[in-house]
Design brief:
The complex is a heterodimer of chains A (112) and B (114). With 112 residues, chain A is mainly β. Chain A is 0% helix and 54% strand. Classes of the chains: A mainly beta (112), B mainly beta (114).
């Protein structure tokens, strides 16, 4: 089955700096890659996703890049703010969007 | 629209007991998936229901089961509870199965097994 590895497990940045989280996946058939943000006491919330026919996608301060050849994808957050502090998960699935396989999570702390 | 709701939010059980958790999807959503979240294993897929039928199942023992009702509400049941079943159980809904539509997660049910 699919295996998703995520690094780093913890990340501390100064407010205003950029943060980068990287994930690799094992199943070459995977072609849907969402990113979720989970705050304390809440369920994961989708922040951005990318499909395999796209190499990069941006939404304001958030961007995701995908390299299908190398089987890795990354989340980039620019101009970080304290409210970006949370746990971020990458995930992968096939074209049906079923059975999301999640990475182990990155705890991001943004220092004011 | 109201989000995904899960009840109860917290539950304490003892080993050997069984438990039923409930999930109400976003109105109009017909697909409901369940995930288990633990510090050690992370987020793991349990199963997905669509139109009252189980479409997919993760690698969990038969003690974990679920069902979906005609109004798309779903329940999951864990029988003969073990200490290792302590976890946050999350459900997620999306309009249809078999699409990459966003899965919206509920806040989860925190199950503690003593």
């Amino acid at each position: 089955g699919e295996n998703v590895e995520q690094h780093p497990s913890t990340l501390s940045v100064q407010e205003g700096d950029s943060a980068v989280i990287k994930c690799t996946y094992s199943d070459s058939a995977s072609n849907y890659f969402p990113w979720y943000k989970q705050e304390l006491g809440k369920g994961p919330q989708l922040i951005i996703d990318i499909r395999s026919n796209v190499g990069e996608k941006k939404d304001q301060r958030i961007a995701v890049t995908l390299n299908k050849t190398a089987k890795h994808f990354s989340l980039h957050i620019t101009e970080t703010q304290p409210e970006d502090s949370a746990v971020y998960f990458c995930a992968a699935s096939g074209s049906s969007g079923d059975k999301l396989t999640f990475g182990t999570g990155t705890r991001l702390a943004v220092r004011p | 629209k109201a989000g995904v709701t899960q009840t109860p939010r917290y539950l304490i059980k003892t080993r050997g007991q069984q438990v039923t958790l409930s999930c109400s999807p976003i109105s109009g959503h017909r697909s409901v998936s369940w995930y288990q979240q633990t510090p050690g294993q992370g987020l793991q897929f349990l199963f997905e229901y669509f139109s009252e039928t189980q479409r997919n199942k993760g690698n969990f023992p038969g003690r974990f089961s679920g069902r979906q009702f005609s109004n798309s509400r779903s329940e999951m049941n864990v029988s003969t509870l073990e200490l290792g079943d302590s976890a946050l159980y999350l459900c997620a809904s999306r309009p249809l199965a078999g699409t990459t539509d966003t899965q919206y997660f509920g806040p989860g049910t925190r199950l503690t097994v003593l």
